[in-house]
Every structure is written in C-alpha cells, then in structure tokens.
Design a protein that fits this description.
14 strands; alpha+beta; 5-stranded mixed β-sheet; about 270 residues
Length: about 270
C-alpha cells in the first residue's frame, strides 16, 4: 500500500471523528441510543460514522468493498466478502460504543485493509486522546509519527494486561481468576478493544486476552501488534487469521516470550 493512500485514510478517519463522532459525544438523546442485540449498544453516531467511512474508503480505493460492523448487523452475509477477490475494508465506526453512549471513554474508530495476501494496513484512532495507531504489512507500526520498536521481555511479575473474564466460558474464567496471581497486573479492561491494542503497542501493557473476536474488533489491532514485533494467536496456539468465521478467543502479546508466559498462567 502506498504512503499516499495511507495518509488519505488517516485523514478520513480523523475527519469522521471530528465531524460525526465527537459532535454527538455527550449530546445523544435517549431516542438515539438502542440495542441491535442483547447487550449490544448502538447509536445514531455509529451508523453515521460507518456511512461516512464507507463512502470515503470506497472513493479512495475504487473496486474495493467494505465490511462494517453496523452493516453486518443488518446483513450477516457481508462477512463472506472477507477473503474474496476485491480489496476489503473492515470498519468499526465506534469501538467502545457502550462507553461512548454513557458519555465516557475510551472509544476508537478502527479500519483495516485486507487484500489477497491478508491484512495489508490498519488504523486505530482514539479521538479523545488524539492518538492514531497505524501499521502497514512489512512496514512497521507507528503511534502518530513514532515508530514502535521491540523491547526486552519483562519478567512475569512485571507484566500488565487485560483479561475480561466476565465474557469467558466457565473453565477459562476459573483459570484466569486463579492465574492472575502469577502475573503482575490483570484487569477487566476498558470496554474498548482498540484502546487495549493502542496501550499494548504503546508499552502501557504487555498482553490482552479476548473472547469475542469479530474482525472489526481485532483485525486492525492484530496487524499493529504483529508489525510491532508482537504475537496474536487463538487460545489453542493457532495464528489469528482474519476470515469470515470470527471464532472465539485470542491472546495478543507484545512478544513471543510474553505469549508463552501469559498462556501458561491464564489458558486451561
């Protein structure tokens, strides 16, 4: 992917955040907040953000297709576009919608580009912090203009991360609750996968373990982690791949030794 397109996508994401997402933040009416499924909050800003991102991305890359979280809610068949012949944009218009709807942070806008080789580029933008994470396959990960370089592995007692056990099946939840004493700090997270990935590559934490693995929640972050020298795998050790089958469970870490340490502590 050329640098010009990368810069254009970054500018588009920032523009949609500034003109669609932030103006409604803490100004939503009750009628503008609903559920698309049990416990799945959606707002008018989610839909408007996805519409704006979709139009902009298709204009930037003619012949591409978009798989967006809100469009999927209306048409589950959209997932079959992933892995198809056309370049595919995966869009989460507001990640952390529950936070956003409550008038809290964090929340992020997330985009990934998938081509015939797999994940090609990714963007995660936190508009409250005004922080943009960007990665290109083979080109590294950047937080704003700072390239992320690998760091020395930490000891288990120094490791910080998230494992929101509330969402896990019983056996995994029990293992996590018993295994946290073997690591430095394990929290329930911030209800925003995008922010967890930014904090992971930014050095604020070293791992994040998730159960729900929709592509819009993890395709962008997985590429940021990989290009920063990290690892994202399913809980059974298989590589995390962006496919039409979302699957369940993944562990992202800043390096291979950390993956082995955290998996040993938290995965049955």
């Amino acid at each position: 992917m050329d640098a010009q397109l990368g810069g254009q996508v970054s500018a588009l994401v920032r523009h949609v955040a500034a003109t669609v997402v932030l103006p409604s933040y803490r100004h939503l009416q009750a009628s503008e907040i609903g559920e698309k499924g049990p416990g799945e909050v959606v707002t008018v800003a989610d839909r408007r953000s996805e519409e704006a991102l979709t139009a902009g991305l298709l204009d930037l890359l003619p012949g591409s297709v978009v798989v967006g979280e809100e469009a999927y809610a209306a048409d589950s068949g959209l997932l079959t576009r992933i892995g198809g012949p056309a370049p595919t944009w995966i869009v989460d218009p507001i990640d952390g919608t529950a936070n956003y709807a409550d008038g809290n942070g964090p929340f992020c806008l997330m985009v990934a580009l998938i081509d015939e080789t797999g994940p090609a580029a990714a963007w995660i933008y936190d508009p409250i912090a005004d922080e943009m994470g960007h990665a290109v396959a083979g080109g590294g990960t950047y937080l704003d203009d700072r390239r992320i370089e690998p760091t020395a592995p930490l000891s288990p007692e120094q490791l910080r991360g998230v494992a929101p056990a509330t969402y896990y099946p019983a056996d995994l939840k029990a293992k996590v609750e018993n295994g946290t004493v073997r690591l430095g700090s394990v929290t329930n997270g911030q209800r925003c996968a995008g922010r967890e990935y930014l904090d992971l590559v930014g050095g604020k934490q070293q791992f994040a373990m998730f159960w729900r693995t929709w592509p819009w929640d993890h395709a962008p972050g997985a590429l940021l982690v990989r290009e920063a020298g990290g690892v994202t795998r399913r809980l059974d050790g298989r590589p995390y791949l962006v496919t039409p089958d979302p699957g369940e469970g993944l562990l992202a870490t800043i390096d291979e030794p950390t993956w082995q340490t955290v998996a040993g502590a938290l995965i049955p």
